[in-house]
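Milestone M4 deliverable, item 7.
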Amino acid sequence: MSSVADSPTFRWPVRVYYEDTDAGGVVYHANYLLFMERARTEWLRALGFEQDALRREAGVQFSVRRATIDYMRPALFNDLLTVTVALSGRGGASLDLVQEVLREADGVACCRGAFQVACVDVATLRPARIPKQLLAEIAHGL
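Output delivered:
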């Protein structure tokens, strides 16, 4: 896995809806994973890659292989959040990403995560090389 220094940070806004919260009005812990998944999808889209097109045209998809989550501060109903995505390393068939969920009102980090996503062949679900064009766009940054 190669290290990626000074990777640009992608930012995606998320509003906390009632359905995202528990009975106390606090974001339910699993929903941070949903927010981060959406941000990774939007990051790929911003790079010019739709996941359905990667699946159809390149025969690959990305699957989370590893996730480490740290919860620091609660996000609440109606908070405006920013979810970040930054590349921290890459291999031939995987990407290491770091993500944060920040509360816009005060910039406080509510949650941090480190993810390894594997590129897999759609037919076999075995590791596959990341398409060269995608690697080139990731290297180029946003």
